[in-house]
Model the fold of this input.
Amino acid sequence: MQAGSKSFRVAIALLACGAASTSLAATPETSCPGSWTGTGEATYYEAFSQPNACGLPLTPDQYVAAVAAAAFDGSAVCGRCLRITGPLGSIVALMTDSCVGAGCRDLDLSPNAFAAIGDPLEGILPVSWESVSCDVAGPIAFYFDAASNPYYAKIQVRNHRYGIAGLAIAESGQPFVDLARSSDNAFEFVSGVAPIAAPFSFRVTDVHGAMLEETNLAFTPGEEVGGAGQLPFCPEPGPGLGGAVGVGVLMLLQSCRGHLGK
Done:
């Protein structure tokens, strides 16, 4: 076996991991363009008793967070994940909402998230945060809002590893067109005179500049359509770790970091 072979590199990664589990924890984005870190204060609110500003479907066991209105950035933070650290530890929360009102601090957490990092009786906690990859399962997905019709499509990107910076659409046989983002975490497309020509192709750009193209997607208002791929991990594989093998080695090494304690 030659040291330059792909199989050798995979073997080295496996040995470094000690044949440990390859499940991935959230990985920091600090070396990626568009990463987000900060320090400040956190409060908590009844996150599951009302619709969230990002329009995302949630379950009560999730850790979720809202940001101050000034940082919401027209819904650009929606769907990003933050590792938030408080006096009692750290959790990873999904950004789903905007906090408005005089009582808002930097972050407003769901009660379960707040209780995991501090004492709820305190009400306000000192925290730090860093953006991380979301622990998604399976491919990216697209939800067509029920208000969509043959001449108008409102699309929300779901189940994405990193924050979404942009979405472009290509109707059947047509070039890609960049879509405008709405304040409720969707992208809107107006076809004009002719009805929308499906199937679609989508080009998704994440906050780090990586792109993913999905093709042959049906137009199904009121339903979610699954893609075939997922946004790549950042940082990208280094020189000499090409293609899928390089991504696989990177994923194994990320797993080793968590398993062996960095």
In short: The first strand starts at residue 37 and ends at 44.
